[in-house]
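So, could you explain the following?
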Amino acid sequence: MVETRQLGNGVRLIVKHMEGLLSVTMGVLVGTGAAFETDAEDGISHFIEHMQFKGTPTRTAFEISDAFDALGAQVNAFTGKDLTCYYAKATSDHAADAFALLCDLFLNANFPEEEMKREKGVVLEEIGMDEDTPEDLCLDLLSRAAFGKENYGRNILGPKKNVKAFTREDILRYKRERYCTENIVVSFAGNIGTEEAVKLTEEYFGGLERTRFVQREKQVVWKKGNLFRKKPIEQAHFAIAFPSVPRGDDSYYAVQVMNTILGGGMSSRLFKRVREELGLAYSVYSYTSHYEEAGMVGVYAGVNPQKAAEAARAVVEVVEQFCREGVTEEEFLRGREQLRSGNIFSQENTSSQMLLYGRRLLYSGEVYDFERHMAQISALTRDDVMRAISENFDFSRMAAASVGNAEKIFP
């Protein structure tokens, strides 16, 4: 059972009651992230996410984490391109206490100067770790090659110079504009009743002042760039991307099946050809990203530098053959079943359900309808996937990125 409410100040609530479980995942989702930042703000959504855990008027950073541990609860957060999420998971008998702690860090964080100084060092180390993780670096470069330096091309962590320069006033200014009641969704999934969830949300969020929220406009343009970063590493890493559909497009599920067949697992075209038959890569896969205005289909591989050019040709050849020949009926049926089962499996996980239902409400104002979406997947035909292939691989608009100790892989 799924129910929604909206508080008088605009905060929205969604509750997915999951009978028979012993736990609850609760989340506070904010519709902001790297894609909404200016050049000067680049990285601030992520930095704020870190700082929310660093103390309130009644608890230090250690006391916050210690209180969650005392409940046997888990707490975490993440920042994306267009979403920031703070969440906790607790046994049902500790749900109220865990939610109180989550709300304390979300609503009452006071950003002590000493903690800001310390956390800047932590985030700078995270940026360094990202730079030293060539797969992550390559995919960050690919996003920038595809979308440019703004919106969906931004690195979530931001540049070091920005992180060093952020002030407490910068944080408060950004939060005043983006952490508005109309831009917040509270999501519960698990063994909790709707009335209890409503009562808790009213208790902690009902007193927030409703301020005027104005969404920032994004100018999204596909750039089809080609970026390279020279790094003294053992492997060469490369990725290519093609423009795809936004998340609300009618062909969304056909694109997911298409991606599964191309590079979504051990039976995929890319895995069989590039890894199993040619032995050119340990890791090779395809993936999709879908946003409000645009999307992308990407392919990544990590390879021996001496075989990088050969591997790149092999990847492109697989995609070209995929476009020429399409998919067999057997591949289509297997891919569709994988998509169906993945959606069914996620229904049994409170964390994925909290995020699924909360994100849907935040992005579109709609309640995710599991039965309807399963029917849409079941209704897919091989022709739908063939059409998706024809519409998602325009080589004249291909973006590329590579990282390694040799030269740029794609000319």
Summary: The chain has a mean pLDDT of 96. The chain has two domains: 2-205, 226-404. The first strand starts at residue 2 and ends at 6. DSSP finds 15 helices and eleven strands in the chain.
